[in-house]
Design a protein that fits this description.
Length: 458
C-alpha cells in the first residue's frame, strides 16, 4: 500500500514507523529538512522537503498513485488543504487529517468535512480522543488502561500487580479453573518495561503490568480478582484549561453529573473562557505548582488529579505535589517518550500519551482487511485489533488447538452473531466472526493477512 504522511513530527514519525515495519511504501513530507533527514535515516521511508499542501510537493511525493494520505502537520489549515488538493488533483481514495482547533469541529459545522465540503474521509481530534481516554480511566479506578471492544461488550483492561495481588505466581492456564465463569484472557504482560506475549504456563509477578480481556459486565469481579476494588472518583481536579482540559471537563459535565470537578488554568484568558463555557465546573486561575492555589482547590481532599497542561514537567511535578498533599490518584499527560518509562517509578498512577492515542486512531483506518479497530499497547509492544475473519482465511473452520498461529499472537475473544465466545481448544473461528487478537509489533501484517485471505485463495 502506498501511503503519504504529511508531517514528520512525533505523530507522523510513529505512523510512518508502524507502516514501514509492515512493508508499506511510505513517503513523508515536511518543511523541516532536519526532520525529513532524521526520518529518512531512521526508517525505511522516502522523504520530501516542502509544504504538504502544495500540488507540486504532493506530486513529487507520488500522490498520483497513493492509496492513503495522512495529514498530521502542526497546522490544521495545511492538513485540510493537503486533503483537498490530494482529492481534487490526484484522486487519492482515503484522506485522514488531524484537526486540533475545536472551532472547526463544532456540531453546527457538521457538513464541513464531507464530499460536498472539504473532502476528508476521517477527521482526528487528538484533544477529544485524549479527553475520552482519560474519562475511561476515571470510570475504572485501579486500571491504567481501559479500551472498549466489540461495541463495548468486552474491554481490554491494564492493571498493575501489587505484592498483595491474589493472582501472582499463578500459571495463566489456571485462571479458567479459578474463575470458571469469569473468562479472563491475559494478552500481554509488561515486565520491567519489556513486553511479554504470555503462554499458558507463564505466571504474573509483583510489579507486572498486565493487559487482559474480559466481558464488560464482569469487570468488577475481574478487578477484584487482581486486588483492585477502588471506587469511582467523585471529586476531580483538572490541571490545565487548554483544549484537552476543557474537553475533559465538558465530557465530565455531559456524562458524569455526579462528579464534582474543579479546573486550574494559569492563563487568565483561557481560565475566563473555560469559566464561561462550563456550567458546573469550578474554574480557578493560577499556577498548578503554587501551594496556595492547590490548597484553595482542596487538593488534599481530591480523589483524582488529572494533569493535562501543555508542559510535561509541570504535569509530572504538579502531580507529585498533589500526591504529597494527600490526593489519592494521579493521571498525567506526557508527550516526551523519554519520560514514559520513568513515570510509574515516581508513584504516578496513570500515564496518558497523546501520541499513542492518535496513532492508534489513525492506524485503524489504514489497516488491511476488515479491521474494526486497532490499538497500540505502549510504544513498540504490539497491537490489539478487532478483525473480521473472512471466508478465505486459513483460521476459519479449524479448532483453536490446531491453529498454527505465529509466535506473538494471542486471541482474546470473538463475537459471533452478538454472542461473546472466549478461547477454548475446541472452539473454531467461523467466517464473519469478529475476533479480538493481540499481535506483537513485528507480526501485525502477518496477522492481517492471516485473518483476511489464505495463500491458497490466490
Amino acid at each position: 500500500m502506498k501511503v503519504i504522511v504529511c508531517g514528520a513530527g512525533q505523530v507522523g514519525f510513529n505512523i510512518a514507523r508502524y507502516l514501514a515495519q509492515e512493508d508499506n511504501d511510505v513517503t513523508v513530507i515536511d518543511q523541516s529538512l532536519d526532520l525529513v533527514q532524521r526520518i529518512s535515516d531512521t526508517l525505511d521511508v522516502r522523504g520530501v522537503v516542502g509544504m504538504a499542501s502544495f500540488p507540486d510537493v504532493l506530486e513529487q511525493a507520488g500522490a498520483e498513485d497513493a492509496e492513503v494520505l495522512i495529514a498530521v502537520t502542526g497546522a490544521d489549515e495545511v492538513n485540510m488543504v493537503a486533503c483537498e488538493v490530494a482529492h481534487t488533483l490526484f484522486g487519492v481514495p482515503t484522506k485522514i487529517a488531524r484537526v486540533r482547533r475545536q472551532n472547526y469541529l463544532a456540531r453546527a459545522w457538521g457538513d464541513l468535512f464531507s464530499r460536498n465540503g472539504i473532502p476528508i474521509d476521517v477527521t482526528i481530534s487528538p484533544e477529544l480522543e485524549v479527553a475520552r481516554a482519560v474519562t475511561r480511566r476515571l470510570q475504572l479506578p485501579g486500571a491504567f488502561e481501559t479500551i472498549p471492544l466489540v461495541d463495548d461488550k468486552i474491554k481490554l483492561i491494564g492493571v498493575r500487580c501489587g505484592d498483595d495481588c491474589p493472582l501472582i505466581h499463578t500459571p495463566l492456564r489456571q485462571l479458567t479453573q479459578l474463575f470458571p465463569d469469569l473468562n479472563i484472557v491475559v494478552v500481554c504482560i509488561a515486565r520491567q518495561g519489556k513486553p511479554i506475549v504470555p503462554t499458558p504456563d507463564d505466571q504474573m509477578l509483583a510489579g507486572d503490568e498486565v493487559y487482559f480481556v474480559v466481558e464488560t459486565e464482569k469487570i468488577g469481579r475481574a478487578m477484584a480478582a487482581f486486588g483492585h476494588e477502588e471506587t469511582e472518583a467523585r471529586r476531580l481536579l483538572i490541571f490545565g484549561g487548554g483544549n484537552i482540559g476543557f474537553s475533559l471537563a465538558r465530557e465530565i459535565e455531559d456524562n458524569n453529573p455526579w462528579v464534582n470537578a474543579k479546573l486550574i488554568e494559569s492563563d487568565p484568558e483561557k481560565a475566563e473562557s473555560a469559566a464561561k463555557r462550563l456550567s458546573r465546573t469550578v474554574v480557578l486561575q493560577g499556577d498548578v505548582l503554587d501551594a496556595e492555589i492547590l490548597e484553595e482547590a482542596n487538593v488534599g481532599l481530591t480523589e483524582t488529579v488529572v494533569a493535562v497542561t501543555n508542559d510535561d514537567e509541570t504535569n509530572i511535578l504538579s502531580s507529585l505535589l498533589a500526591k504529597h498533599s494527600g490526593c489519592q490518584r494521579t493521571i498525567v499527560l506526557v508527550n516526551k517518550a523519554a519520560y514514559e518509562p520513568l513515570i510509574t517509578t515516581l508513584g504516578i498512577d496513570v500515564v496518558v500519551v497523546p501520541r499513542n492515542i492518535t496513532v492508534s486512531t489513525i492506524l485503524q483506518h489504514v489497516r488491511r482487511g476488515r479491521v474494526y479497530s486497532a490499538h497500540t499497547l505502549r510504544e513498540g509492544f504490539g497491537e490489539l485489533m478487532e478483525i473480521e475473519a473472512m471466508e478465505t482465511s486459513t483460521v476459519v473452520g479449524t479448532p483453536m488447538r490446531d491453529l498454527n498461529l505465529p509466535l506473538g499472537v494471542v486471541i482474546g475473544a470473538l463475537e459471533r452473531k452478538g454472542r461473546i465466545i472466549f478461547p477454548h481448544p475446541d472452539v473454531a473461528i467461523e467466517a464473519k466472526d469478529r475476533v479480538v487478537v493481540f499481535a506483537a509489533s513485528e507480526i501485525v501484517r502477518k496477522v492481517e493477512k492471516l485473518f483476511a485471505v489464505s495463500l491458497g485463495y490466490f
